[in-house]
Amino acid sequence: MPYLDQFMQQWKAFLTQQLSLSGLSYLVSDADDATDIKANSMAYFAWLRTHSIELVGIDEARDEVAWVMLEKQLKALANKAENGTFDLVSKLHLEANQIQIVLNFSYDDEQHIVYVS
């Protein structure tokens, strides 16, 4: 699923920027990129949770929920992108590489989740 990889890379770029703004660094391990993205996401979610007045008393299990929700959104959007790209290519006679999808990420500090649009 190439769109999922692209969307994960967009999240990684956003995440790297947000970590930097928070005074943290994106850490790279000997593992694969997907493992690093998840580990850094979990560190970011932990930082957000511990620095939010609205989330006082929320435990670290909520960070895993935030990750699962983000991953599900990215997978669902990747499936839509795959189908939509196929339709556009066939109807408008475009090349698939001419279609660019840019995601927006927004954090909801009351729910402790990231919305993707």
What this model shows, in words?
The chain has a two-stranded antiparallel sheet. The chain is mostly helical. 60% of the residues lie in helices and 7% in strands. It has one domain. α2 crosses α3. The chain contains three helices and two strands; from the N terminus they run αααββ. The radius of gyration is 16 Å and the shape is elongated.
Which terms would index this structure?
single chain; 117 residues; mainly alpha; two-stranded antiparallel sheet; 2 strands; 60% helix; elongated
Give the strand tally.
Answer: 2
- How many domains make up the 3D coordinates? 1
Order of helices and strands: HHHEE
Helical fraction equals 55-70%
Low-confidence stretches: none
Please state the structural category.
mainly alpha
Strand content: 5-15%
Number of helices: 3
Strands across the major sheet, in which order?
1-2
What's the helix and strand layout?
Blueprint: H1 2-21, H2 33-50, H3 61-92, E1 105-108, E2 113-116
Antiparallel strand pairs: 1-2
Task: Write a short abstract of this structure.
The protein has helices at 2-21, 33-50, 61-92; strands spanning 105-108, 113-116. With 117 residues, the chain is mainly alpha-helical.
